[in-house]
Amino acid sequence: MVKILLVGNGAREHAIADTLARSTHQPKIYAAAGERNPGILRICQKTGGEIILGKPTDPKFVAQTAQKYSVDFVFIGPEEPQFMGVADEVENMGIPCIGAKKAPSEIEMSKAFMRRLMWKYKIPGRLRFMAFKNVEDAIAYINEYAESIALKPARQAGGKGVKVIADLQAYLQQEKAEVKRKHAHDIYEKHMQPYTDIEDRILIEQKVEGPEYTLQCFTDGKTIKPLPLVQDNKNAYNMDIGPETGGMGSIGGPGLTLPFINEEEYKQSVSIVENVVRAIDKELGEPYRGVIAGQMMLTALWGPTIIEFYSRFGDPEAVNVLPILESDLVDVSEAIISGKLGKINLKFRDTATVVKCIAPRGYPDRRDLARGHPLYVDEAAIEKRGCRVFYGSVGLQDGEMITGGARAVEILAEAESIPEASEIAESCIDFVKLKDDWKLFHRSDIGGETLLEKRIELAQLIREIYNYRREKDLVGRQVDWIPLRGRIEYQA
Which residues share a beta bridge with 390? Predict the structure, then answer.
């Protein structure tokens, strides 16, 4: 019997555990987790394993747990354990690990490292950027250049702190500069304050527009096996307004692409990820093994363009793809470990998927208010409608489910089309409640025809401009007019 230690305790990890448990190898699944996620606990108990509580980011805790239970391999779900070197510690004990080691995981942890790597190896889909180690230098740059930018923490900070500022109206130039300066201070003093593991603090990137999407891939360092595309919806409220979250829901399919991304663009996206995996190997001298995902945007500058990388499955994006994976995830994992991923034929059920996340009020900015509420989920009613429940930020206290302050539940629906799946998922929302009458919220528009049509129209507009630029050999080239400096042309 195969024994597996899963690291993490969110909805993504619930989906990984569920997919591993479907293996013909009948694995015994353990979990090194910070909370007793009810879905993961059920799977562990059903397969003869258990949840072991501790810090998933503590390399010694995870490695010692893996050794204690004599597991065959470890599967890391979230990014922070990778950044802390969990995979390194596990493999130093002679136990294989699905999950990037500390050095390769810098492709996600440091957005500046990722940008420098893409420019060094001239990988298509790269953006102009500047990285700053202190706020004074960032503000000096902002004061000198009036341009549309994306301001970001230079480190992965759980999706928080990103602000895109369009600076197009000359009469608002001073006001926009003040917004930029204030947000640079917020990044430096608030969003980057907990992190001391990278020198860069603030990243300024050129602003681009277009529909976003995620390409998740398995890799053994040599071979890339791409999964179906998924689009996550980051903003908290309907029609893409409100603060950015870890993701309020996602759509996928049918097939490998999305209704607004064509097959050629899918292949270009795969090629970008392949080039980055090869570049990591050249730069660091060690192969990248595990899951890698490109968070991408279709832009007029490049077509498929990298916004950032994940060194793991996305959440909620994993919930779209793993439940429809027909290949055996244990076989895939063992092929990654042995360097034989090229022999695996990935198969997926041909269906459209919609995931809707339900969170307590207070998320994402006041997680203290969203924490500690008793949760009730009528799983039988949800399953009767053909949907599935994946538990996120939920723990068990005295047998009762308690919210942890973030997205509590993710509901997955499948259908022939995305709008149909959206309607089915929506019919299940009322079966999730908080017993103390604290309010829950979700996005009802995700996967709906109105929002989907908006994505399709935007993609078509971007595609027309990109195709024109390609015909004129202008892909990756940009001309800016900087006040007092004149015309500046950039050749990527």
Answer: 410
